[in-house]
Task: inverse folding
């Protein structure tokens, strides 16, 4: 499995993965994906001939309009914000998200802090388990515009 940077030619595959995982991540269309990809540092895909998963990371100070991202921007000078991760349903529990997060955390190591949010009410059980297993700790909760509540998570990389 190769973890490599996202390329515009991955857009259709990434959109399909994203739109099949809307219980866990926010929706995207071609235009918003292109805009978001331009803000990421880095955007990563897991590729073994097909795109089996992806993860997007943003640093502070971008124009991203996510309230969750802005919540972290208001509290920390520097971090890697894991905006979204999705692994194809048929490929889960084979360590693909682990490889993507290994690469994302390596890229963010100089910031000292990785952050993200996961639905806790109602719970995204798989994602909460994944993040707990990787050492992410809850640092707050935030009610979302869709009525769900997110746990705000952080991992100290120092
Ligand atoms: C969350 C997600 C990215 C995990 O991807 P994955 O490739 O299956 O994760 P991994 O195989 O690397 O899992 C590593 C460990 O995390 C934990 N874990 C992952 N998924 C789990 C699940 N559904 N239930 C319990 N533990 C889980 C386990 O400890 C696992 O190790 P193990 O398989 O040896 O027991 C995937 O389930 C997904 O794409 N979900 C839909 C989109 C989504 O909700 N994204 C997160 C938004 S916050």
Result:
């Amino acid at each position: 499995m190769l973890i490599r940077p996202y390329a515009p030619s991955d857009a259709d595959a990434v959109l399909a993965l994203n739109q099949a995982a809307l219980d866990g991540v926010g929706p995207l269309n071609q235009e918003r994906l292109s805009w978001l990809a331009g803000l990421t540092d880095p955007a990563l895909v897991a590729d073994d001939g097909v795109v089996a998963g992806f993860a997007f990371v943003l640093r502070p100070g971008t124009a991203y309009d996510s309230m969750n991202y802005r919540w972290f921007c208001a509290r920390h000078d520097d971090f890697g914000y894991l905006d979204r991760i999705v692994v194809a349903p048929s490929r889960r529990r084979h360590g693909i998200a682990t490889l993507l997060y290994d690469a994302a955390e390596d890229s963010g190591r100089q910031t000292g802090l990785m952050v993200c949010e996961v639905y806790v009410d109602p719970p995204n059980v798989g994602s909460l388990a994944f993040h707990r297993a990787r050492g992410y700790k809850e640092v707050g909760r935030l009610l979302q515009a869709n009525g769900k509540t997110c746990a705000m998570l952080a991992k100290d990389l120092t």
Observations:
- Residues 42 and 109 are 12 Å apart (CA to CA).
